[in-house]
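Troubleshooting log. The previous structure file for this entry was overwritten by mistake, so regenerating from the original sequence record. Sequence copied from the archived sheet and checked twice against the printout by T.R.
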Amino acid sequence: MKRLDVPAELVDAFVRAAVPGPGDHRAGDVAVAKALLKQHPGTAETSIYAAAVAGDAAALRRWLRQDRKLATTAGGAMGWQPLCYVCFSRFLRLAKKKQRRDFLACARMLLRAGAGPNSAFTNPGDGVRESALYGAAGVANDAPLTRLLLKAGADVNDGETLYHAAEFPSHDCLKLVLARKPENISFCMCHKMDQEDPAGVGVFLKYGADPNFLIERGANDLHGLRPLHFAILRNRSPKTVRVLLHGGADPLLPSSAGVTPYAFAMILGRRQIAAELRRHGGATALSPKEQFLAACSAGKTTEANRLVRADPTLTKSLTPHERALLPLLAGEGNFPAVRVMLATGFPIDTPGPWGGSAIHQAAWAGHVPIVRFLLKRGASLTCKQCFGGEVLQTAIHGATHAGHPHGPAIVRLIKRALTQSL
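Regenerated output below.
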C-alpha cells in the first residue's frame, strides 16, 4: 500500500486514543482520536492496526491483500493483534448500528485470514489476560461480533467475558455467552445483582445458575453468602428477590455464618424484603444479637438499649462483618442507624466495604448530615481505605464519580475539619 504522509507518532497517538487505557474499558470517549482523524484524514489507512481500531474495512482489506500474515501479527501502539484493536475500539463501543457492521466486516476478514478467535493481550495495569471476546461482549456489548467470535471457536472461559457481559441491561450478548455453558455462572449471577435487573437474574437462572450457590470468592464481605443474601446486601428490589425465590432459592438456607435470609434482611434494615421472605416461608426467628442489629438498623434506640442491658457483651461480641454494618449503612444514608450504633458502642472507624470507615462511605456517597455528625463524634480523617486514600481523597473521588451534587459541600467540610485539627 502507498504510505501516507502522517507522522508515526500521530498514528500511535490516534490508536492509543481509540482504545481504552488500563482502567475502566468503558470510560472515556474518542474525541482525541476523532480530532486527529479530522486533522489527518488518512490516519486510519496508515497501518492495519489503525484501520482495525477505526473500523475502516476498505483499508483493512487492502492491507490484507498486501500481506495476509498481518492478520496474526502483533503491532501498533499497543502491541496487539488486529482483532483486539477491532474488539476493544472505542469507536466500536460508541458506534451506531450501521458503523458496527464495518467492525464486524473487519473481524470477519481477519478471521478468514487466520486471526485466532482467542486473540488476547495482557493488561499492563493489572496483568490480566483480556480476550477479543471480552472486548466484543463485555466492553462493546456487540451481539453480532460476539456471535461471530463464538462460531469461530472463542473460549468463553477467559475469566472476564461472562462477568462483564452481565453488566449490561441488554441481554443479547449475555445469552450468547451463557448458551456456551461457561464456568462460574452462579457467581456471575450474583455480579448481575450489583445492579437492579430482575430479568437479567432470570436469564442466569434459565441457563443453569444455582439459586442456592455459596459464594467462596470475591471480597471478604461476600464470602459465605448465597444469592438471596447477596440480593439483600446489594439492596435489590422485592421483584429481584421474587425472581430468585421462583427460580428455586430456598428462603430457609442460611449463610455459612448461620444467618438466614430473613435475619439478614432485618439486620440490614430491608423490611420489604423481610416481608417478602416471610410470605415465602422464610424462618423468622432471630437470635438476641440479630434482634440487636435489627434494632440498630431500624434506628430503634430504646429497643437496642434494652437488648444491651439484657446482655452487656452484645457489642463487644460483634464480629468484624457485624461491626461493618456501621459503615455500610452510613454509605446508604441511614442516619438513625448510625446514631444508634455509635450510641451502643460500635467503633466509629471500623472498616466496611472497600475498607472505608463510616465517614469514608458517607463522604463518597454524598450524605452531608452524616459526615457532619461523624466529624463531631471524632471520626478519623487520616484512616485509609483499601485504595490508599484518606477521607479527603475519598470525598473528592465521590464528588467526581458518585453522581450526587453534594461533593463540594462535603469536601469543604472535611478540609475545614483538617485545618482545625492542625
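Residues 61 and 121 are 23 Å apart (CA to CA). Archived copy saved in two places this time.
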